[in-house]
Amino acid sequence: MGLLGGSVWLLCVSTALAASSLRQPRHVEAPRSASPSGSLWPLPRVLHISAAQLQLAPKRFQIVHGSGSSAGPRCSLLQDAFRRYYEYIFGYSKWQNHDDKSLANTELTALQVIITAEESDCDKYPDISSDEAYQLYVGEPVAVLKAGKVWGALRGLETFSQLVYEDDYGSFFINASDITDSPRFAHRGILIDTSRHFLPLKSILTNLDAMAFNKFNVLHWHIVDDQSFPYQSVTFPELSAEGAYSYNHIYTPTDVRLVIEYARLRGIRVLPEFDTPGHTRSWGEGQKDILTPCYNGEHPSGSYGPVNPVLNSTYNFMAKLFKEISTVFPDDYIHLGGDEVDFTCWKSNPDVKEFVKKQGIWYSYAKLESYYIEKMLDIVSSINKKAIVWQEVFDNGAELPSDSIVEVWMGNLYQEELRQVTKEGLSAILAAPWYLDYISYGQDWKKYYNVEPLSFLGCESQKKLVIGGEACLWGEFVDATNLIPRLWPRASAIGERLWSSKNVTDLEDAYTRLVEHRCRMLRRGIAAQPLYVGFCRHEVRDP
Amino acid sequence: MGLLGGSVWLLCVSTALAASSLRQPRHVEAPRSASPSGSLWPLPRVLHISAAQLQLAPKRFQIVHGSGSSAGPRCSLLQDAFRRYYEYIFGYSKWQNHDDKSLANTELTALQVIITAEESDCDKYPDISSDEAYQLYVGEPVAVLKAGKVWGALRGLETFSQLVYEDDYGSFFINASDITDSPRFAHRGILIDTSRHFLPLKSILTNLDAMAFNKFNVLHWHIVDDQSFPYQSVTFPELSAEGAYSYNHIYTPTDVRLVIEYARLRGIRVLPEFDTPGHTRSWGEGQKDILTPCYNGEHPSGSYGPVNPVLNSTYNFMAKLFKEISTVFPDDYIHLGGDEVDFTCWKSNPDVKEFVKKQGIWYSYAKLESYYIEKMLDIVSSINKKAIVWQEVFDNGAELPSDSIVEVWMGNLYQEELRQVTKEGLSAILAAPWYLDYISYGQDWKKYYNVEPLSFLGCESQKKLVIGGEACLWGEFVDATNLIPRLWPRASAIGERLWSSKNVTDLEDAYTRLVEHRCRMLRRGIAAQPLYVGFCRHEVRDP
């Protein structure tokens, strides 16, 4: 709905934030490292760690399906996760085959994973309402991880793996613990940009690993843009044949499926963005007439502007392309972009001018953009998908379906934008303070960590409409050479902000845990850059 | 000599810079890429490239010793270089075994390398006065590379390899060319810091490769500092045993020898820095009494300050340690540091206070630092080495031997500092505008490129005392995860500034060449980050 439209605003009274159920006290009984919470990242909602140590014997320890679980050996998502986390826990020790005689009096022999809901979601894709809650009880002789769905089990496995530590003698221990956890925000995304620079499949998969380690659950794949069109369309193969940087810089249908499945196995949604009508120069390479010819006075200048909004052929093309996209990408949402549309070219084109006049939108090119986007929204609805758009679509007054999501990205007034979007009853995702492509000297992770997404003027019902946020690593200066160290552990700060309770704001404690978490990422093959001076016991494996 | 000392200043008259012999016109006849100079980086002094293409057949082409060369097959430095550059030229083609039928009418069958001086320097170490000049003539049927010494031959091989290009069919070509080249500055360094973070040997060697690709010739190894002491001393093994981050974070004598030899084979000096009297916290871990005990009023506070300058034991220790350093590191120079000495602790210590009083230096702790440094300079002289120091040593008025070099690193007044240092007749190295650890968004390489090291007030004889510069990548936020992409190609900008003629300042031309040079570095295994949007035909080999 438009800002000035007559639609009903959410009526609510601004109140001081009530103490939410998320603000439960953290009971931490047994500090065993510099942080009372060990190396946990992000911090669970409720956490009890006791002083009692249990030893794990790599040869005997097992991760298994617990009795009563609705998932079993046929759930390959969990089977894969069990194997993966066993490897993360024990795989980096040089001494894993040493004599497993117990040093502690007590041994933890297994982690039993129990999916409590009738439907485990094992073969499904995660979505915005996926249940990621879990409970983890670690005690002798077995630990029990309970989750309604596999998504919570994945998060709990990550937490369990973070609780295990290796002593100086190569023995593995875990402290008896009791954890109840669930995310504060449902949408916790990382934006990657594969148009400004192509990212090899391996980089994307490695990044998905890192996302799982930080409990992110959305890969926002800004897959095409002005610079290149690496998405290989089956319906319109010319788009990548002409618009990709080269034949080697293309994501085939197989590649895309692989990314989606690799993400699914880690509880991560893949949200595709096909940004229009701006940011589309590369589309014009392989699709005739899709872009607006710009004019220099009365003659075409030879250059092209945004998508041509006045031709029926445009919408026919878009309907077919987005139909394909809706089948390739299983997510309920498609990101339609809609940002940074430059009206100069539209204003120069006589057909566009004539159209604007005829439509009676009185030379408002913002309204022309809304006209275009509303057509796109219709296409998206017709293929049973929902839309996410950048904030300008909202700002320009497009009529947005109530299930749309507005992504807030612009500068310093993002709190006011959040207020306005949610006042219209629309859901919002916050990206503005988390543009990780803007680098600076020093520990900038603190700046990202200090952001409180709900610190805008609005009532509780408005706050609830902020469903999450995204760390955006735009690709102008990023490719496979620097993607991972530039993103991690800076994005980890945002991961904790979006997962953990609002009152988790202690920078010193966060630093201590994040240092260890970063070393853990290194051990697991993520070349996360250092936070500050120091070292990891296991440095990067292949510098 | 001190700033206020009565020593004789270099007398000279400031004049407008005369057109130097370096400012020869570049004749470029045959542009074959976006830059008339192809992908050459840094740009040679005199360059003629003709339109005539010669083809190279990987199966037949050879790099050989030319007749009359004073070096032959027994010169393993050149033998290794021949093999290495053959691999750089042909090694990345997928089609190198394809049929070598000539497409051009003319073929280049060999590069003959001729060392013209009687003494080739083949088994020597490079030094500050090493001759790096070379002449390269590429014509049918053979190319000839002439250099006085092997150092020039190494630079010429790099240039030759940059001239060869692969066409779309996998055939290799080079244009007939005539190049006369030599560096503008003799000291072209990269500073790495292995104390704030340990850098694995492999990272250091990879960086040496990249340095050779950019014609850098000094690895300034800031090997120890407050945070850790990774240098394993044979004389004082406790220094690293106690002062290194861990047993795995140590450079053994074998490691150090390997770095030095790997560097030598690429014409790169290894300049060790053992920074004292500040930046020495880690020294205190393994060496009793080396640091000054700080006092809180009348009692030791338990913390320690800079090296203790009042004990004879300090200088006995330093004499032994530096004696060892002088044998381990073959370079003529040792960097003594001398930067950022905090006097607070010295001022608190009663023994130091008493000493200052007795010495009659009237509570000038800057003079105490000079006292200390002069003792260190005596030690260095006694082991037949020369000293490089950070600028504070000069600023504080220490009596510096005339063969010392002052490294200028502080902030925005570096031009004035250069003026003052050279006015005293001392040589200077410029680092101030090239602190690459300070990162920022965008194409900051342009800022580094635009620096003109001699743009300070001073006469020609002063300008000649500026012997070069260094790109410094301090290690607070850098380790093996991000060293290479953070350093390259940003340091390349400084590489060209220090090698090429003063009038090579065209940013657009530089951008075009640097984009290709960066792709070449990627092909050769250097994960240099992108300059801006775009792609390389061969992306990073193992992201």
TrEMBL record, chains A, B:
SUPFAM superfamilies documented for this protein: (Trans)glycosidases, beta-N-acetylhexosaminidase-like domain
Glycoside hydrolase family 20 catalytic domain ranges (all copies): 185-501
Biological processes, Gene Ontology terms: carbohydrate metabolic process; ganglioside catabolic process; glycosaminoglycan metabolic process
Catalytic residues (UniProt): E340
Residues annotated as domain Beta-hexosaminidase eukaryotic type N-terminal: 40-163
EC number: 3.2.1.52
Function text: Hydrolyzes the non-reducing end N-acetyl-D-hexosamine and/or sulfated N-acetyl-D-hexosamine of glycoconjugates, such as the oligosaccharide moieties from proteins and neutral glycolipids, or from certain mucopolysaccharides. The isozyme B does not hydrolyze each of these substrates, however hydrolyzes efficiently neutral oligosaccharide. Only the isozyme A is responsible for the degradation of GM2 gangliosides in the presence of GM2A. During fertilization is responsible, at least in part, for the zona block to polyspermy.
Oligomer and partners: There are 3 forms of beta-hexosaminidase: hexosaminidase A is a heterodimer composed of one subunit alpha and one subunit beta (chain A and B); hexosaminidase B is a homodimer of two beta subunits (two chains A and B); hexosaminidase S is a homodimer of two alpha subunits. The composition of the dimer (isozyme A versus isozyme S) has a significant effect on the substrate specificity of the alpha subunit active site.
Protein name (record): Beta-hexosaminidase
Protein source organism: Eublepharis macularius
